[in-house]
């Protein structure tokens, strides 16, 4: 059963402690509100201001699990706070760990300050949860995929166009790396997991995947330096730094180039192109 009063009070308290800079918003010179405004939270949660306002006013329909997940993410709730939110709304909290998609507040705070840098937050299966605008300019919008295609490893074996972004000399290594990484996750999560389902799909649809899967390679880690072939700016040699959230098995990937290098100049050009495209 939904606890409308408890839900409303909890939402108000979380909104009032969040500051604009905590969520990547400008403060502005005339702000008098404690914390965020309702319309700002509604935007962060991808819902109408009216819908969100009714929840704080103990009115409106019982929110769905999708709405609750969106609110938890928009308010930068911790996992414990997210679970509390779900219980107040009379629902069971989502699973944690490898299958969870709730991004931790700490990871989001770092991500929100990286818009001028190619960066993304991905799951252990290579599913993109967030991208900076420059990240979209680098790899395209990889949050748009649905179903198994959300996984970069799945797309690698099923969509030839994906490989065009990566230097050809890297392809054999990446093929082995994706198969090796998926095998490790299948072993970790077990039969019936999403990882096992992806492996079954790939075994049924890709001869190449079956070949590398049968090699049983384990422990092939990504190279620190990645070589991209961008359709507009050309070859890019980028260092990839990875920050891992162990509670949710999410990774924040940040791509940088050596200052003064040709790749650095091209990355700066890409940032400009991406900004112009978005506007």
TrEMBL record:
Gene3D superfamilies xref list: 3.30.450.180, lambda repressor-like DNA-binding domains
InterPro entries: Cro/C1-type_HTH (IPR001387), Lambda_DNA-bd_dom_sf (IPR010982), MLTR_LBD (IPR041413)
Domain of life, source organism: Bacteria
Pfam short name (any one): HTH_31
PANTHER family per the UniProt record, alphabetical: BLL4672 PROTEIN, BLL4672 PROTEIN-RELATED
Name of the molecule in the record: Helix-turn-helix transcriptional regulator
Coiled-coil features, chain-numbered ranges: none
Domain HTH cro/C1-type per the UniProt entry, residue ranges: 34-82
SMART domains registered for this protein in UniProt: HTH_XRE
Taxonomic path: Bacteria, Bacillati, Actinomycetota, Actinomycetes, Streptosporangiales
């Amino acid at each position: 059963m939904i606890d409308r009063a408890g839900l409303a009070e909890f939402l108000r308290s979380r909104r009032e402690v969040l500051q604009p800079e905590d969520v990547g918003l400008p403060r502005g010179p005339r702000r008098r509100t404690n914390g965020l405004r309702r319309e700002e939270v509604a935007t962060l949660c991808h819902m109408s201001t009216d819908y969100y306002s009714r929840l704080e006013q103990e009115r409106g329909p019982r929110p769905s699990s999708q709405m609750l997940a969106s609110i938890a993410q928009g308010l930068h709730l911790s996992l414990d706070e997210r679970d509390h939110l779900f219980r107040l709304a009379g629902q069971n909290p989502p699973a944690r760990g490898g299958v969870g998609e709730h991004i931790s507040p700490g990871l989001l705070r770092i991500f929100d300050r990286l818009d001028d840098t190619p960066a993304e937050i991905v799951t252990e299966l290579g599913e993109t949860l967030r991208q900076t605008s420059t990240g979209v300019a680098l790899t395209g919008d990889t949050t748009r995929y649905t179903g198994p295609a959300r996984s970069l490893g799945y797309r690698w074996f099923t969509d030839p166009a994906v490989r065009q972004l990566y230097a050809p000399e890297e392809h054999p290594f990446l093929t082995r790396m994706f198969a090796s990484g998926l095998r490790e996750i299948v072993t970790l999560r077990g039969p019936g997991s999403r990882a096992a389902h992806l492996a079954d799909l790939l075994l049924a649809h890709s001869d190449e995947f079956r070949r590398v899967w049968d090699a049983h390679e384990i422990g092939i880690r990504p190279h620190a330096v990645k070589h991209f072939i961008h359709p507009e700016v050309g070859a890019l040699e980028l260092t990839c730094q990875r920050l891992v959230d162990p509670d949710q098995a999410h990774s924040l990937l940040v791509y940088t180039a050596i200052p003064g290098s040709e790749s650095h100049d091209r990355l700066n050009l890409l940032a400009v192109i991406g900004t112009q495209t978005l506007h």
